[in-house]
Amino acid sequence: MNTTANGSSSWSCSSLINQEARKVGATVAYSLILVVSLVGNPLIVLIVYKTPTLRKPINMLIANMAMSDLLYPMFLSPVELAKSHVGSWLIGSTLGEALCKMHSFLAGVSMLVSVQSLVLLTVDRFRAVVLPLRLRLISHHVSI
120, exposed or middle or buried, with CB in 10 Å at 0-12, 13-18, 19+? Predict the structure, then answer.
């Protein structure tokens, strides 16, 4: 047990975890998330695109959310795997700094687009249930 200068003890879970086991677990988890995302999300977009009856604005929001959910693991997983195994960003110099910042920005934008699509879906479903006779928020008709 660790003891600080003032006599209080501090305890950390990281001392109990085998670092190699953590790396293997993180690699398996990130790889599984990436593979499921690379298969499932394009499948949703393909189904909405190929089925004419599903080409409705609400389903387009679902396809939009699927695309943003596809991009997030594509930006996050490789970087987290490299950070886990190497311990630092792989590319140095100005290019590496720009890519690091762009990676963070695009991952954040992808997450925000996904959340925005989910909020719009929720608002539309709320209005459909609570106010069913009013004009729909998301429709095929364009009003000026």
Answer: middle
Helical packing angle, 57-85 and 93-130, nearest 10°: 150
Alpha-carbon span 41 to 67, nearest angstrom = 6
User: 105, 72 in Cβ contact below 8 A?
Assistant: no
Report pLDDT digits (tens) over 119-140.
Answer: 999 988 888 888 877 666 566 6
Look at the block and give the residue holding tokens 């928020």: 137
Tell me if residue 89 falls in helix, strand or coil. Answer: coil
What stretches of 1-144 show up as alpha helix (H) in DSSP? 19-50, 57-85, 93-130
- The 10s digit of each residue's pLDDT in 12-62 is 566 556 777 878 888 888 889 889 999 999 999 999 999 999 888 889 999
Task: Please give the single-letter amino acid code of residue 65.
Answer: M
**Both tokens assigned to 41:** 């999300």
